[in-house]
Amino acid sequence: MAEDIKIEPLDIILLEEEKGKELSTGDKLIDNFLQLRTGLPILVFGAAFTGKTTFCLQLSIHAAIENQKTYYLDTEGGVFPKRIIKIVDNINVKYEKIKKYIYFYRIYELKDFFKRLNELANIENSILVIDSLSRILFKELYASRKEELEKKYSNIIKRTYSLLAQIADKFYKNNSTLIFVSETKYSSKKGRISLSIPFPSLLVISKYAIGFFINKGRRYMFIQRHPFKPSVYEEKVMLEFTIEDKGLKSIGLVEASGENLAYIIQP
Predict the structure, then answer these.
(1) Which pLDDT tens digit goes with each residue over 91-117?
(2) Contact call for residues 256 and 237 (beta carbons, < 8 A)
(3) Which CATH superfamily is domain 22-265 in?
């Protein structure tokens, strides 16, 4: 006789899903638009200079303000003390107050990246930011022949995906949050934006996927994936923002139209 399957009451399951805390950027409209929570993997993707690092720094700083430990892996060399202190000073917080909760690491080699991930995997109630995952992986993708390059790509992606999936599972159990950045390329023609993620398997791991792009000098973010809010495919709304000394500042919501992440921004 087959073993009986134990089914948990729905209210217990829902309480388990809602156990995380809210993640904040300090901007109420952005926070309300994204509705991010701790404990679930977050993918932040977009082209260079769209605001991804500033966004991740804001999440890290505001988590530190709430006494939550944050570990920031910088693979691009784009995080400088002056940049962090400028954000902190402009939100009227003393860096001395939060520095024991936020740790920055410069990572240049893939082997060091894997080592650091394993070291941080079991820390409870923490946030781990990888900025960026694509940059550290692309550094390893060089070869003299196409066949060699394809093999390298396959091996690196499999290894990285496996490790991130394991860490994401551990983080969920420890109520910790994994945030990873992937740099994308985009094309723009007659107001139409086309985005692509270089490592599509990242979407399988992530529960949240937040896209960033610039169109005609204006910055936008959109929800590509969310555990309980509609994505931009279902509800064609994006959020326009600008970048100030204190970080990202919302301007307002905009409507979009199109398919397959090719959207026309309405004035």
Answers:
(1) 988 888 898 999 999 998 888 988 998
(2) yes
(3) P-loop containing nucleotide triphosphate hydrolases (3.40.50.300)
